[in-house]
Write a structure and sequence with these properties.
Length: about 575
């Protein structure tokens, strides 16, 4: 099955293959983009939820702080020395004037506390005693029925000075704080009066959630145990009960009457009340949905545009491949003519232009080869015959030199005999194609044969010496490495000079690197001679080519760290060969 699928894919036209690859790539990229958008959207939603939840949770802290401030105010009032003194006078004194004066001082003190703590959403402060009632704001106090106020005062007196919060009338009149005021002096702790503070809970909630204007108006629910003690006016009692029962986590999205709300649940610090804070989530939901639709639409438009553009580009590329195939088919049928097309590929520098030009060049070469094939075959056979006719047998050459050598010895010509023997040794090495690596000893023997001939030629003008440690004689070296250097020394030290020339071959080994020195007097190397020969700054002639060849041969054999070095030392020309010791 898999083999059949592979075969089917392999046999698809090039156009369909490229288009399929493009389509698969687009689909994968689009899927990756959608997955990335979804992951990013989920992360952003979670981050948004946490941010909103954190912001809304701040309102509970603010409400708690305001309630704490009101409790602090109540403690300040009941412990105020002036209030304690005036309440004691009203209770104990039978002097009407003193009681009236004490009442007037209370009427001045209580409004001061009201003004100082009004920012905590106070509606009014009432201070009750057996004879008078002191009001901070009688207008607001009169809105509350008298029987409710009396009930609250009685409930507060039963707590004997402890803080009492009354949430029974939150929806109608507000939240009430009541405290029984006891005499502090001499710790008598008898009843002096009752403090009643009314808090505008709607104003407190609105003030605490002002920060949430960025999320639209916030709504609030306060819950004491299982009892709903307060809810914002924009919810009915039934809706508030539904919200209370539906929110089971710290925050969630609730749907109420076809509207979405982001709800946060928590506890007001320092109080046994739970709260639920809600903000409208419709605009955020619409914005998120619009962003998703917009992203998907952009991806779809890009995919369609990419497919159309890819198809057009693929057609433009495949057209030139089809043209090349047509040219191949036409040339395959008739090799005598090169097919012409209505397109100039000579100016194109891309791969298609190169393919067409190479095919045209190949077709021309094939035509040319067909035309000259028979002539070339005849010339080749004739050249082979000529080579056979001109080939010299090396054994014939060695035998001839051997005959000359014996003849020279017979007539007592020792110099001729030595020269012929040395020449035979040189020819035997140079004509031997099998061996390319010599030992240093063999290479020096070859050099000695060469110097035998040169000494006969130059007589006393030439002095030659070898200083090579015996342990280095077994080291291997490429054939004909030292002899050309010695020949170069003779050429520049003797042939172009009239003075005597001293040539020395020496060797040493440092760090497993074999160094061979060919030193001669009578001539000096030009500075940076090899570099100048390589860059054609100096035109090579004669032995200049040989020096370059030796250096290149050594570098190709052993690497760029080895080769030939030319320098001058103490009026002597030194050619140093560096190779690894093996």
């Amino acid at each position: 099955m898999m083999q059949r699928i592979k075969t089917s894919i392999s046999n698809l036209p090039l156009k369909k293959k490229i288009f399929s690859i493009t389509l698969i790539s687009i689909v994968l990229l689009s899927a990756s983009a959608l997955i990335g958008i979804q992951i990013t959207s989920s992360s952003n939603k979670k981050l948004l939820y946490n941010t909103i939840a954190g912001s809304l949770s701040y309102s509970a802290t603010d409400i708690s702080n305001r309630l704490d401030n009101i409790e602090t105010m109540s403690y300040m009032i009941l412990s105020h020395a002036g209030i304690q003194s005036n309440l004691s006078i009203i209770k104990d004194s039978h002097d009407y004037i003193k009681r009236t004066q004490a009442f007037q001082e209370l009427n001045a003190t209580i409004p001061e506390y009201y003004q100082s703590f009004k920012a905590n959403n106070l509606s009014f402060i009432n201070l009750y005693n057996d004879y008078f009632t002191t009001y901070s704001n009688k207008y607001y106090s009169d809105r509350v029925p008298e029987e409710i106020l009396e009930e609250l005062v009685l409930d507060a007196e039963e707590k004997q000075g402890a803080v009492c919060w009354f949430s029974n009338y939150n929806d109608e009149y507000g939240l009430f704080l009541g405290r029984d005021i006891r005499r502090i002096k001499q710790t008598r702790l008898d009843h002096l009066g009752t403090l009643l503070v009314c808090v505008d809970i709607d104003a407190m909630v609105k003030s605490a959630t002002q920060f949430s204007n960025q999320y639209e108006d916030a709504s609030y629910l306060l819950i004491d145990g299982d009892d709903l003690i307060y809810h914002s006016k924009n919810f009915t009692e039934e809706q508030a009960g539904y919200i209370k029962s539906s929110l089971n986590s710290s925050y969630d999205i609730l749907n109420l009457d076809k509207h979405n709300y982001f709800a946060v649940k928590g506890r007001i610090p320092n109080y046994d009340w739970d709260y639920i804070c809600l903000v409208s989530y419709d605009s955020m939901t619409a914005a998120l949905r619009l962003s998703q639709i917009l992203c998907i639409s952009i991806i779809l438009v890009c995919v369609i545009f990419t497919l159309l553009l890819s198809r057009r580009l693929i057609n433009s590329v495949v057209f030139h491949f089809n043209t090349l195939l047509d040219k191949m088919k036409a040339f395959g049928k008739d090799e005598t003519t090169i097919p012409n097309v209505n397109y100039d590929y000579s100016t194109r520098n891309d791969e298609l232009g190169l393919l067409h030009r190479q095919f045209d060049h190949m077709a021309y070469k094939i035509q040319h080869l067909i035309q000259v094939n028979y002539v070339n075959e005849l010339l080749k056979k004739e050249a082979q015959l000529k080579a056979l006719e001109n080939q010299i047998n090396p054994h014939f050459l060695y035998n001839t030199l051997e005959s000359v050598n014996w003849r020279a010895k017979a007539i007592g010509e020792t110099e001729i005999s030595s020269m012929v023997e040395a020449l035979g040794a040189l020819l035997r090495v140079t004509l031997n194609k099998k061996e390319s690596i010599f030992t240093l000893k063999q290479e020096l023997e070859l050099v000695q044969s060469y110097m035998t001939i040169q000494k006969i030629r130059f007589e006393e003008r030439l002095e030659f010496s070898v200083h090579v440690p015996e342990e280095l004689l077994t080291a291997t070296i490429p054939k004909l490495t030292i002899q050309p250097l010695v020949e170069n020394a003779i050429h520049y030290g003797l042939e172009e000079m009239t003075e005597e020339c001293s040539i020395c071959v020496a060797a040493d080994c440092v760090d497993n690197r074999l160094r061979i020195y060919v030193t001669n007097s009578g001539s000096l190397f030009e500075d940076h001679l090899l570099e100048k020969l390589q860059t054609n700054e100096i035109t090579p002639h004669g032995f200049g080519i040989g020096l370059l060849n030796i250096d290149k041969r050594l570098k190709l054999t052993f690497g760029d760290g080895y080769g030939l070095t030319l320098y001058n030392q103490d009026d002597l020309a030194v050619a140093m060969v560096t190779i690894p010791k093996e």
